[in-house]
Design brief:
Helix content is about 20%, strand content about 40%. The protein has about 110 residues and is of the alpha+beta class. β1 and β2 form a beta hairpin.
């Protein structure tokens, strides 16, 4: 398991964060969060691109995520909805899938290969 986070700063303050958690050749896009006053200005897109580029660089084949608020946002980056039961067992056992997000969260996948 590998987990890494990237942060965005503006004027010396933390304004965004996103994470990548690796499980074999699959990954989980974690916690894309942007300060409310900077939403809609491309911060989240830059953070998401960083995670996608990193996932491709290390040879991941698929990237999964769970969202309760951004199911209309992530298709812009190529993600599509998927049933949780279709995710690999390692991803289903991740903290994000087991504990961090409610059962009502939408699962999504992006094929990187």
């Amino acid at each position: 398991l590998f987990a890494g986070f990237v942060v965005a700063e503006a004027a010396g303050r933390l304004v965004g964060v996103a994470g990548l958690e690796v499980h074999g050749r699959d990954g989980v896009l974690r916690s894309v969060v942007v300060s409310p006053d900077l939403r809609g200005r491309g911060v989240g897109a830059r953070l998401t691109r960083w995670v996608l580029d990193s996932a491709r660089e290390i040879g991941l084949r698929r990237l999964y995520l769970l969202t309760t608020t951004a199911e209309d946002y992530f298709p812009r980056h190529g993600f599509r909805p998927v049933e949780r039961s279709e995710t690999p067992p390692e991803v289903q056992e991740s903290v994000e899938f087991r504990e961090a997000c409610p059962g009502s969260a939408v699962a999504m996948v992006l094929r990187l290969e």
